[in-house]
Amino acid sequence: MKYLQYAIFVLFLQFCGSLSASAADVDKHSSNYLSQRIDTIYSYYNKMNLDSAFCSVGYRDLMRQAMDQMDEDDILLDYDHWINAQDYSKDLSARAASIEAFTDSTAIVKVAVRNFGKEGEVVLRMQFERDDWYVDDFLPSDGVGEGEKEYFIRMVCTVISKRLIMNDHAFNDNPMTKYAYVDIDGDGYNELWLRSDNDKLGAIISVVASAKLLITERRPQKVSFYPGAVVVDGPCGFGCNTINAVIVENSRKAHNVLYIKTNPLEMEGAVHEYFYDGTRISSTNGKKRLQLVMHDKRQINPTWHNFRPEE
């Protein structure tokens, strides 16, 4: 009896070992695996939230940013991007039809969708992350126009640009036409940096939840970054220079240290003023606070992207 139990136990271990070996042998960087992955994703259609489960981190972050800027009555997408339609039939079917531009980390997959007896197509940009393939973008099936990620960022930039104009008419004369991302406080959530085409005007905005302005820049002012802080310094008018330091925590403005130096014509010498969160403080206190912020300067070379503002 003991021998029989031992033999069953050995067979069980061998069976488990064969399963582990077969799982380890799966080549996730093959087109065959990617095709199966697509079919698996669509097998869950209408059974779970596919966006949360099968979209890339980058895609979901852009979608979140776009949704955060919407008004209550606004609709981000008026169709189901998984089937490129507004409704689906009970006999809906979808399968990976072709894979193009395949690399170890990216690919374009064309999905054949049959819905209400009609053939359609969905084009997915795939990205390998978190040890599997995820949808990084939904592209136009005719190859003309923008993908959803580009649409999201264009909408976000447009909404924020309009808000900037409402608060400062200088932005109306120098409309924002390009953007870049920078993570000031290193929390994993990027801040949005907008600039005009002529680089005369710019603004850095927190896009976590509702957008919040962190700081603006006006040429010839310069922007520099420090651990957890962004600083804009330079002329602020005739006989005026400023250093504006914004400390960022959890992608929000935590504190602000402002230094203003003026040279009034009616006075001999310069006037030095320091403010902390809007309250005037002593020069000694102000200098210490700026020194705490402005150390270990970070070298950041953002990648700028053009965007077409929505009318």
Structure overview:
- It is a single chain.
- With 311 residues, the protein is of the alpha+beta class.
- Helix content is 28%, strand content 35%.
- The strands form 3 sheets. A 6-stranded antiparallel beta sheet has the order 9-10-11-12-13-14, with helices on one face.
- Strand 1 (93-100) and strand 2 (106-115) form a beta hairpin.
- Helix 4 (57-68) packs parallel to helix 5.
- It is elongated and about 85 Å long.
H/E topology pattern: HHHHEEEEHHEEEEEEEEEEHE
The total of beta strands comes to: 15
Distance N terminus to C terminus? 82 Å
Mean pLDDT: 88
Strand content: 35-45%
Helix content: 25-40%
Widest beta sheet: strand line-up: 9-10-11-12-13-14
Question: Which keywords apply here?
Answer:
alpha+beta; five-stranded antiparallel β-sheet; 15 strands; six-stranded antiparallel β-sheet; elongated; 28% helix; 311 residues
Q: How is this structure best summarized?
A:
The protein is an alpha+beta fold and 311 residues long.
